């Protein structure tokens, strides 16, 4: 397994998403609120190298945030 230890992967934790017209993005200023397509109880999506691999929930402990994996997705799963 030591051969795998130095391989980097791109991991993304997605809380939600939305689509906005560029004109709306350009009008935003500090403190602007963006509504997502998901609620606070919806699962967080975990992508590795652009592939959905798991779902989970965000945990906050003091100043630290983490994701608890609640479901590992089958190969080829989509949103």
From TrEMBL:
Keywords: Cell projection, Cilium, Flagellum. It holds the Pfam family FliMN_C. Residues 4-73 form the Flagellar motor switch protein FliN-like C-terminal domain. The keyword Membrane does not apply. This is FliM/FliN family flagellar motor switch protein. It comes from Stakelama flava.
């Amino acid at each position: 397994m030591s051969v795998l230890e130095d391989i980097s992967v791109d991991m993304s934790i997605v809380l939600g998403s939305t689509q906005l017209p560029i004109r709306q993005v350009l009008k935003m200023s500090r403190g602007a609120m963006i509504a997502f397509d998901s609620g606070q109880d919806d699962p967080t999506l975990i992508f590795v190298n652009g592939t959905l691999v798991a779902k989970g929930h965000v945990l906050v402990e003091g100043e630290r945030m983490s994701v608890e994996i609640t479901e590992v997705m089958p190969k080829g799963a989509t949103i």
